[in-house]
Queue: 4 jobs
Job 1
Amino acid sequence: MSNPIDAAPGSQRADYSPAVHPAWVEVDLGAIADNVRALQATVGNVQMMCVVKADAYGHGLIPVARTAVAAGADWLATAQLSEALAIRAAGIPTPLLCWLHAPGVDFAPALEADIDLGVSTEWALDAVIAAAQSLGVTANVHLKVDTGLGRNGAFSPGEGRTDFAELVDRAAVAQAAGSINVRGIFSHFAAADEPNHPSVAAQHDAFVAAVALADEAGLDIEIRHMANSAAALELPHARWDLVRVGLAMYGLSPTPDLHSSADYGVRPAMRVIARVSNVKRVPAGQGVSYGYSYTCAEDTTLLNVPLGYGDGVPRHASSKADVLVAGQRRQIAGRVCMDQIVIDAGDLEVACGDEVVLFGPGDDGEPTAQDWAAAIDTISYEIVTRFGPHVPRVYLENAISDDRSNED
């Protein structure tokens, strides 16, 4: 089976066949294109970096990357180098940042492919410098500063001598020698989805101090960025030179407790569909699935759907999440299994082969990814990224705008 990144925009994966696959993920590339344009209109005159990490949040790396560029994305971004290299192998020359690395990585292929590299540690800076010197090129890097998230990045609380100060000094020396060009400085919020959280202002202040530190070291920074989707939409002062849009690009709200997708002018692009494989009438009292955690309250119809936690359905959705079948929402009955779930359909008229929608945009009454997230106490990010590449992606034929002037 081919990898989903081999799919071209506006086409179906060549290996998808209803005779072989009982379930599939439908991706509306038109929605993604519209979302990119809507978000750009909202954030105004700053650059937009479209984040396509984790197989484009499960939507398909290359089709989504091409779609985002065609819709006007200034930059693309991935966490892992393998995906950044896949974008270049697909012939997409758009500026591209990759930021998450571990010791032992070979940066030479990235530099040969003109990929900007996020650097947050001295070992990574040294490795990038070594690769640049071996190739006789200048590497473009973005220094990552930890302004309070406590995750990736060189620590800089906004005052005193810090790890980030040491990193800046070493980078300035390397830039003077011609090995690197410090093109950007970036950071990440811990609670941008709560705009009034005290950490938001503290982190922004720390970033201001980090930028000043780089200026004092003589680094001519072209791009300063720290806004993810939530910050881009809720914190105009944090947009700086560029915003990194991830979740919102896929039509999901980064602030579900505050605003819906529709409030932001975006719509979900993913729909997960499966076909009913078995229909049976059972009496009241019938237990369902492992452990009989669910018992039928009355005579009912049970549907078997061949999609389970091995495909991406969260096991925590057991007896919690709804699906759409025969125009009605019905709950998953009992435990989610590795490759199947059971639906209690009551007295609905359902036949083998009928479609069940696990979640989608909600246009036809189906649950959304946010509905599933709320049902199992998680976030919509996790819901859409769970579905692996062995569940085929089907891309809508008319999904791309007619304006393809920017498409590679």
Job 2
Amino acid sequence: MKLSIAAVFFFLVATFAADAATRIKDITDLKGIRTNQLVGYGLVVGLNGTGDTLRNTPFTQQSVQAMLDRMGVNIRGSKYEPRTRNVAAVMVTAELPAFASKGSRFDVNVSSIGDAKSLAGGSLVLTSLTGADQKIYAVAQGQITISGYLAKGAAESITSGIPTRGRIPNGAIVEQDAPGAFDESMPLEFELRNPDFMTAVRIMDVINDFSKGRFGMPIARARDWQSVMIRKPGGILSSRLLAELGELEVEPDQSARVVIDERTGTIVIGSEVKISTVAVAHGTITVRVTETPQVSQPLPFSEGGQTVVVPDTQVDVNEAGGNVAIVKGASLRELVSALNKMGLKPLGIIAILQTLKTAGALQAELVVQ
């Protein structure tokens, strides 16, 4: 079977991931510690004729006029209205890290909202970033880095990636401390990123085994399938306790799930997926219709004859595949082996998995993206 590189990679990841232990800090978050989303509106200048058309984007023109007014340049009412295409209106988005303090820096994303063709070579003018509470937490400014490009001539253009979206590494400076604080009175509770009762119980057992040797008593309790509560022993700082617990390794359990991306042909099958015994036949029918029109001309010196086009249609039907195979996937390895023996391509595997789910033979959740 010829699988895409992505499909083979994810098959291997799904096969070996179940046997690998993971640190607690990599699969959980501490309750109460979170990032905050910020947003702002600004202008990008210095574009080489790839910015907004001011005639078609009045908000960009108004923003340019307002910016110049603040700098003491008045162009309102002038007959020489700006027609430059070196400016673009953008939305600036970012995530304010938890416990960020004044003066610290973080990355921002810049996205065009007008009809600009590319942000390559542009610089973001000082832009305020506000949170959901409408307070200004940071300001952003700097040179934009983009991963795409745009090249065009009189009759042809080439675009790679998305040139109207970019990033400014460390482009924002915190002006107000992030909300929230970490102190010794704060309750300690791990929240699983992928909730599961088995994983929560395993985390509790690993922490208690460690704490019995370290503190002489158990300190963890699994409250539900998402939360594991920690009782802090005396004589140790919360930061040190979390650092030690975060390095403990646990093998997370995972639900039986199959994820399919029909656009790219990528298939991810979890290690817990099971298939009931079924017979599967897969084949495709290809119908090819060929039109070969023939020209019919009248005989020489004939009266009333006309030249006409006579249609000539050929229809070929080709049915490929159609072999019947017994699929009894007691495990992921056997399922992949059975599909390989059928000689299927990714699209064929996707069709079979969807049909198996409809028939009730796929004992897993099927997610189609």
Job 3
Amino acid sequence: MSTLQSLGSERPHRAEAVVDLAAIRHNVATLRARAENGAQLMTIVKADGYGHGMIPVARAAREAGADWIGAAVLEEALALRDAGDTGPIFCWLTTPGEPLEDAIAAGIDLSAAAPWEIDELVAGVTDRPARVHLKIDSGLSRGGAVPEEWPALIRAALRAQQAGRIEIKGIWSHLASSDEPKSPANEAQLATFTEAIEVAESFGVDAEFKHLANSGATLALPETHFNLVRPGVATYGLSPFGHALPSAELGLRPAMTLKARYAMVKRVPAGAGVSYGLTWTAPRPSTLGLIPLGYGDGLPRHASNGAPIQSGGERRTIVGRICMDQCVVNLEDDQAAAGDEVVLFGPGADGEPTVDDWADAAGTINYEIVTRLGSRIPRRYIDSGR
């Protein structure tokens, strides 16, 4: 998409996100092995591959055996086709009036959750019928037809299919609480989804694919797998369960390391206030390092006065408020200089902070930390497996 890419031959950047494609392939293979009863696997690459780079991630996923690629919005799905991906692609989030005809012509599977969406799909058909997955709202109360409106959606879809305008390829839904595998909401949604399949089949629907499982369910709820699973965040080596069940215990490898180089290092006296609002004051003479990254690059401002980094092999803490373009770290009495490398997060194998550590500091989830990283940070792709 729009994210800058580095091939490793340029001069050093002020910052970069290093993405290991071998880790992506490893995670896809691991998730594929967890799918029950030979279920196919759809790798979700929405939001520029959760900030990792949609096209490189999709290619690595295909290499590792991903049967499907999932993209939230049309521009993502079409960009995958433009990049040469010829395999099955599923796209599920559209609004009235979007150019569905382009996606239909490109053979992209689309979602429908209301009769008006069937009408829009029919209007977009030219040379080939639209491939459609009908969505039931099984309890998330987001997209999908509520059970009371499910029969009307089925009837509209069957009329369009009988007219040769669409093919009903799937029935699907999305879980609300798979990151809490023991939540009773999972059992309730599974029951609603199963009933929706039975209702559809009673009307004569013969959908090839039934899919409900996201990352958490792929890893912990095998009864939700049906014949297609859709892991997202786990593809990138991040646990949907956070610290409760870390990536390493799931056999996943975090793929991204965020690095920067100090723009300045200086000594300040005791009592010196740091950054906007002077919310942190040096308790004694201290060395401060200026990191040229801020909330304009995607660092969460809520992680001010607490986010960890690694500098010179030591864990240190960001102090003061994170600004738009920069933040400050307390190096205490460490020796450092402008241009030295600092690691904000990575897999954690060398003692560096992880994405989960940053999520804890910001009071959010690991999904948000990587996805919000902006286009000012170049992505550099490595392949530790080759």
Job 4
Amino acid sequence: MHDNPEALHHKPQRWLKPAALVGVGVATLIVAVGAFSRVTANQDLKAWTAQESIPTVDVIRPSTESAAQNFVLPGQIQANYDAVIHARVPGYLKKWYVDIGARVKAGQLLAEIDTPELDQQLAQARADLTTAEANQKLSALTSSRWSNLLKQDAVSHQEADEKAGDLQAKTALVQAAKANVDRLMALESFKRIVAPFDGVVTARNTDIGALINVAAANDPGLFTVADVHRLRIYVNVPQDDSAAISPGSPAAFTVPEYPGRTFQAKLVSSSDAVGAQSGAVLVELQTDNADGLLKPGDYAQVQFPVPPASGIVEVPASAVMFRHKGMAVAVVGPDSHVGIKYVTVQRDLGTTVELAGGLGPNDRVVDNPPDSITQGQLVRVSGASSAAADREG
């Protein structure tokens, strides 16, 4: 019987070592492949993240087809002539012949005033004139007699001169009395209220029997007559727009009572001064009103056509940014990097603005730029807006 069992003297198998080495290699390969996959995935993620962080923007081309634009301002229509007719003599209104809306001619009788006090003053003045003329005749006879007596040395020169002087004084009294009669007769003519020119009666502020008190406080006048065959339109033009219009410039206007209808006018004069309170220039336009459709006092919306200015480009208002240095727009260069250009706004048209400098017609302008957009930032231009901008360019 042997001391050691047979199992202790069994030799190891030769294939175990190579198998172990292969296992170790496979495990190492698996670990390496996994590490490589993780590195590659991490790099792809970083690249994807960086790509996604590039903002996508829409671009447009500035428009250079700045057709004539209209700026609309409120205006006040007034009559060519507008006269408030007051009484010149006191009394009572005897009768009126026209009412509001009546078309009248120059010199047409509008009303009559009963003036009993003035009539009595005229009668007294005529009596005074008769008395003065009688005294003058007597003084003339006396002066003539004394002049003949002086030739005969029957009276002194002093006495003859006194009679001649009395005649001159009486003659002056006649002239004064006649002037007073003429004055009162002129006032008598004001008993007849007549139209000063062809026009329409726009107000009647009296009635039969009304007391006429001359020069009374807050006197509204008896009638108001307006010449409406031609009308004036007054408009306050803001200082910014005042250089675009001048005398002779055409304009169009509308009034609320004729919706959809446009009337034509022409600018005839300007105050050539900016109002201290309004900051605007007062201009006057005129328009024919032969058909009488328009009325004095009308409110009008006046449209002034403004010719296009050279060097002006137009962009949407949404493309303009407010920066600390002023108004700016973002443009995209050929390398897809952003450039910030500061611009001067010539005119704000609401949805669009006209820019007078800082932008060229071939620039690709970012529409609705984000607030975070900066100089040199890389952006991605959307395909649709890029194609549209190319077509516009």
